[in-house]
Input
Amino acid sequence: MFSKILVKLIDQAIVPAILLIAARIVSVVLIASYNKIDVFIDAAGFNVSNPTEYLFVNSYSILVMGSILFLGIAYVLVKSYVLHESHITPKLTAQMFSLKLSSFIQTSFDLYSQGSIWLSYLYLLMFVAGLMAFFGVVYLWVFTTLVGLAVIATILLIFDVEREVELGKKSFAESVEEEL
Amino acid sequence: MKNLTRLIFDSLLILMLLGMLTLPISSIGLLGISNKAKTQDTQVLSSQDTRPAKRILIKEVKQTTESSVSTPSNSKKVNQR
Output
């Protein structure tokens, strides 16, 4: 069971990992070109010419990464609130099947493994941004924004887990009553 | 034996998961400050060197130009040879 969870988590971590790396590269290039900042590419990666430009590009790029992570979490949250297998409405289920989108209806195991991975990425990014803000290589407001996003995402996910636990308790109580 | 194999497999999976989690975050290190800027900075700093410059006394200069330069002690031996 433990290895099954780990394999599932690794499987779910691939898409956000690729998205984050792509977001970093694209955001650095776009932010630099939009603000007419020269970016040199060498073996070490992207380089800017002075620390002020580095602070600017780095901060906004981390903000873009955080926003993409929050969008991913929002997608998972919408699925877990609306399209959760345990509490999806019959009407919506019928609509999803008629639109051939039944794959969007997911189990708790799928949804919570996705949510935990996206949330882990957001917490890791927040931690790194905090360290960078401490050393003055990222604006402090970027770090505080990431803290806010992480707190909101965590609270929303906890609400859904709580509702799921209550539903589980109810169904368990009903099954016990039927047996009695 | 089976438990040991499972333990190794699980630990490898955990390592893989940690790698997957840290890899995209470490992409932050892709951006840096170019070496040209660093070299320019060091050049600016070197021009602000506060150590006193070496001075040669005019007397010493005169002595070397006007007075005969002392011949090395082994020069005679070299001539004799």
